[in-house]
Amino acid sequence: MAQKAPGRPLEGLWRPPKTKPRGVVAMSRCACCNALLSDFEATRRHAMTKRFLDMCTECVNISFEGNLATIDRLDLLHENNLYDTYKEEDI
After folding, report:
1. How far are the Cα atoms of 22, 31, 36, 63, 71 from residue 27, in angstroms, in the given order?
2. What is residue 49's DSSP assignment?
3. Residues 57, 34: contact at Cβ < 8 Å?
4. Is 58 helix (H, G, I), strand (E, B) or coil?
5. 84 burial type by CB count under 10 A (0-12 exposed, 13-18 middle, 19+ buried)
6. Residue 58: its pLDDT value, please?
7. Distance (Å) of CA 5 to CA 1, 14, 27, 29, 33
8. C-alpha angle 86/59/23, rounded to 5°?
9. Which residues sit opposite 52 in a β-bridge?
């Protein structure tokens, strides 16, 4: 049998670029309800573990009842990120 010359196994095949093209923005989604996350929500981290929460403000408040220490980027905070804690019966 004839032996193949050593070479790269995927030589000549197209490969996707390792970086995102300019102008492409990755959209993060809430791990609980699949809602799109704002920049503020997407950069929120757990205060002890320093890991991203990947949860929207509403799901964080419901899941942890407001008792979760987080690291937030307040420069990204917008009034749309504030969760209304009042129920309709309270109004």
Report:
1. 15, 13, 7, 22, 20
2. T
3. no
4. helix
5. exposed
6. 87
7. 13, 21, 45, 47, 53
8. 120
9. 45
- pTM as predicted: 0.59
The token pair at 31 is 């791990």
Tell me the pLDDT tens digit for each residue of 3-60: 555 555 556 666 666 666 565 566 789 999 999 998 888 999 999 999 999 998 888 8
Residue extents of the structural domains in the chain: 26-80
**pLDDT reported for residue 90:** 45
Residue 55: exposure state from Cβ atoms within 10 A (0-12, 13-18, ≥19): buried
Can you tell me whether residue 50 is helix, strand or coil? coil
Both structure tokens of 89: 């019966």
* Location of structure tokens 């979760």: 68
**Residue count of the chain:** 91
